[in-house]
Amino acid sequence: MTVTERIQANVRHLAETIGPRPPGSRAETMGAQFVASQFAAAGLSPCVKEFATASHAATESTLERLGTGATLPCLPSQFSVAGQVTGPLVFLGGNGKPRQDVPLGGAIGLLVPSGGIEGRIRLLEHLQDEGLAGLIAISPYMDDELTKNIRYPEITGFPVVAVSWRVGNQLAQAAGERFRLTVKHEAGATNTSQNVVAEITGTGPNWLAVSAHNDTAPFAPGALDNGGGTALLIELARELAGCTPAASIRLVSTGCEEYGRRDGVGAGAQAYCDAHADELDRCVGWIEIDDVGNILGDLTVYAAGRKPFLDLVRQIPAPNHARLPGKASCGCDHGAAEQRGLPYVWFTDSAGIPRPYY
Fold this sequence. Notes:
Blueprint: H1 3-18, H2 26-41, E1 47-52, E2 58-65, E3 70-72, E4 75-76, E5 83-93, E6 108-111, H3 117-129, E7 134-138, E8 160-163, H4 165-172, E9 178-185, E10 192-200, E11 207-213, H5 223-240, E12 248-254, H6 267-275, E13 283-289, E14 300-304, H7 307-315, E15 323-326, H8 334-339, E16 344-348
Parallel strand pairs: 5-6, 6-7, 7-8, 11-12, 11-13, 13-16, 14-15
Antiparallel strand pairs: 1-10, 2-3, 2-9, 4-8, 5-9, 10-12, 14-16
């Protein structure tokens, strides 16, 4: 089997055999176990480290237009609470500011999410305080639901579902009518996730982290985000096993990156850095592989750090079309490194471009 065939096979196993792997789910654990088995098959000794985090437990949702018998397609948003609510539909708009001309208490809101994470959470907390009964988040895709547009476990006052842009248009025209929204949970949410770590021991005291998250948004198979990155991490394990580098190389398959917390940084990377805080002075850098394998994308290498580090990054041979735009926004796994002053590199070919197949 060629390298390309192995990578494709591992992406298919993650995205199709296991399927969606939302944070804290049983499927996410299955994904971590698969990565650990592949690290072991490469001749390494993987370690699975659990950490506390929010769990996505919602399995299904329904949205009924009362009085008509009609149901509209929807999916539970990440970390949505369970519940069944009934109320009039109110269109909240999409500019990040709740409308002042509609009563919110007992209503089901229809929202086009916009703005940054902190602004969204403040808006949602305001809607909670005003007694909103339920929320429908409109996705930026015509016929698909983006289940991580709203993904904040801090919001416990009402269930949240995602609908497509097409369904959102239909709902906006039904404002004022009564709807019933239902979100159901599976039993046994653990509120834990896990990182899988394998180390190639070096000759010196320093170490380099290479990470790729193995979880996905709810109901998303995650071939791109981030089956491709995970498959490349597994291939790196095969390539590097048996080597003796100058600095130890720690391959870190992170969990719960899709949580993002309030700062947008992956929970697994944060947990790893917290657990190894006394060793960070010996970390020479963090390499993140996230969102790779997009045929229409631009291979982009984001990097930040001191000049000697950046000069070295620029010297590494890369395809002619690769872009090096500089520093990325703080988020994902590399955000944990940036917050701690560690140099980082992020490889991606999907940053800042539309992903209608999400």
